Amino acid sequence: MNSRIKEKLKLLPRKSGVYIMKDENGTVIYVGKAKVLKNRVSQYFQSSPKPSKVQAMVDNIDDFEYFITISEMDALALENNLIKKYQPFYNILLKDGKQFPYIKINMKEPFPRLEIVRKVKKDGAKYFGPYLAGLDVREIVKTINAAFRLRTCKQKISETSKARRECLNYSLGLCSAPCTKRISREEYMLELNKVINFLNGNDEEIEEILKEKMQNASNNENYENALIYRDRLKMISKLKQRMVANLPKDVSKDIFCYHTNGLSGVITSIIVRGGKILGVMNYSAVDAELEERDTLFNFLTQYYQNVLVPHEIILSHEIDESLLCNFLGKSPNIITNPHGINKTLLDMARDNASDYLEKHIEKDKIRYNNTLGALKQLKEKLSLVNFPHRMECYDISNISGTNKVCSMVVFINGEPAKKEYRKFKIKTVKGSNDFASLAEALTRRLTRLKNQEGESFKDKPDLLVIDGGKGQLSSVLEVLKASGLQGIDIISLAKRIEEVFKPNSTTPILLKPASAELRLLQRIRDEAHRFAITFHRQRRAKAQTHSELDDIDGLGPVKADALRAAFESLDNIKSASVEELSSVKGIHLALAQKIYNHFHP
Fold it and tell me: Which of 395, 434, 429 is nearest to 531 (CA)?
């Protein structure tokens, strides 16, 4: 513990707040909350024995900061925001992309349909799930439609509207055709209630319906449909195998067990809906909390931002229940000393966690070596001024100078931060000039950083990586100097033999082949290349389908299609009078005049 930390510890207030631990490079390595800042932060620097994971983090602390909050609830909200912002290595961090599918039924529609979604909203709809690995939610929806003939189209249907004819699904017996009033709303809602009953755990009715349909298809020698119904029955059988004995069918509960060996940890979750186990998931938990219950609490606050809160939550550790309920805005029944079937489920989670930790402990070491470990080596081998906490890589993509774009890919703590990715359309460069295109893109990025314009560009990069050799590096180095921004490292990576070029040096640096630090540079370079090519292809495809009608302000795609249908060709539209244009449905007189003026300047 250095003298700076000693002095700061004396000044810590006895109030709630959030603290941020930093290493010698100024990188945020841990964010925590505290009911009493002085007590909690001081604990980390006491000489008493600590878990290995905590000691490993403490050994890397060079400084800390803190923020005072009005309440512990405010501290919890701020902690979550700061974890998302800094993505510290020693915090649990659930990736936003790890969202499992739900089945959604919008009860506000006259004839609701089943939708597969990955985000739960407070919109009054019914949500069923989440469906984890091992259960294909699309197959479940197909099984429901085979039995109950709900509509699958996105067409807006009201009680007064009526389509011209039924779609193919009606002919195949997969839809009841509410669009043509083949079924009343009352009859449709009766079918929908049967679907909801099934999704809540009752399988008997759907199984009987499918068996009867399979038998009828077989009797009518419609063996193709009979095979379809047979496959749907297999899905029902698969769901029934997940039934938990002695558990009511209308029960929904989540079970969480945290297991650690002192250095690495894992949280195992079991999802039970409608009396069935919908899935088991394991989450690696590198977390430097002093108490195991706090690690579990931190996990839950992140987990339930993406997942529907069930009626019951069963936990392996006691937590601050009132704080969690206030944070969630709901009050589920939280059980930390389970008995009976709940204890059986928690034991199952504990066995899964122990097995996962034993088999995947090596993965945590590999992750560290490929991220923070690689960054440390990169700083040392390239003699960088900064620790490359935030790396940005740029690449240009075009074909013969057309549809030029530049990608900006961001890695934080050695891992992709896809929400930070940005793309630029090159506007001022003529022809195929990668040097000038890079200069334009970086000028725009650094100008926005300097002026703090837009949330996307407010964070300062520690290291800029340019795809290319000395020429590309020179073109952007002048931009960096002209910006007046200090403390940003910049390098380029040439593909031929993976040479690294630095400013003011004619001799390239060759990193050890297959080393973690070189692989990290290759990953960000390849990701920038992929991102640039994808954007370029999108622009090229859009340009190939571009029409002059797209350039007319106020003329959207629906009205443009109406014009094409009425006049059959663009030449006919160009030669039409204002009166002829205004005769098309949706084209009012002012818009017709605007269209005419566009083609007759």
Answer: 395
pLDDT of amino acid 136: 86
CB burial string 265-281: b at 16+ within 10 A, e below: bbbbbbbbbbbbbbbbb
Query: What pLDDT is attached to residue 96?
Result: 47
pLDDT at residue number 517: 93
pLDDT of residue 487: 86
pLDDT value of position 307: 83
CA gap 596, 576 in Å, rounded: 8
Strand partners, 32: 19
Which of 476, 507, 472, 508 shows the shortest CA–CA distance to 489? 476
Query: Hey, is 103 helix, strand or coil?
Result: strand
Residues written for the chain: 601
- Reduced to 3 states (helix: H, G, I; strand: E, B; else coil), residue 150 is coil
- Report which DSSP code applies to 439: H
Task: Using alpha carbons, select from 294, 282, 290, 227 the residue that is nearest to residue 255.
Answer: 282
Taking Cα atoms as reference points, which of 96, 98, 97, 131 lies closest to residue 116? 131
* Cβ–Cβ < 8 Å for 532, 395: yes
**CA-to-CA separations, 220 to 149, 209, 215, 217, 226, in angstroms, rounded:** 20, 17, 9, 5, 10
Q: Which amino acid makes up residue 241?
A: Q
Strand, helix or coil at 243? strand
Which of 414, 418, 477, 408 is CA-nearest to residue 448? 408
CB 289 within 8 A of CB 57: no
Whether 146 and 226 have beta carbons less than 8 Å apart is answered as: no
Neighbours of 482 (CB within 10 A): 11
What per-residue confidence (pLDDT) applies to 464? Answer: 94
Q: Is 216 helix (H, G, I), strand (E, B) or coil?
A: helix
Which tokens go with 35?
Answer: 């009911």
Residue 264 structure tokens: 């690495």
Residue type, 107: M
The two tokens of residue 580 are 């002829």
SS3 label, residue 45: coil
Single-letter amino acid, residue 108: K
pLDDT of residue 565: 84
* Exposure of 393 in the CB half-sphere (CA atoms within 13 A): 29
Contact between residue 341 and residue 320 where contact means Cβ atoms under 8 Å apart: no
What single letter denotes the amino acid at residue 51? P
Mean pLDDT by groups of 10 residues along the chain of 601 residues:
88 94 88 94 90 87 94 92 87 68 91 90 88 83 89 83 84 85 91 91 87 89 86 86 75 92 86 88 86 93 87 95 92 94 94 87 77 90 91 89 88 90 90 88 91 82 90 87 89 88 88 91 94 88 71 84 84 88 89 88 76
Rounded Cα gap, residues 485 and 553, in angstroms = 40
Classify 30 as helix, strand or coil. Answer: strand
Provide the H-helix boundaries in 330-433: 340-370, 372-381
**Is residue 130 reached through a cis peptide bond, with omega within 30 degrees of 0 on the bond before it?**
yes
d(C-alpha 541, C-alpha 313), whole Å: 49
- Alpha-carbon dihedral sign for residues 183, 185, 190, 194: positive
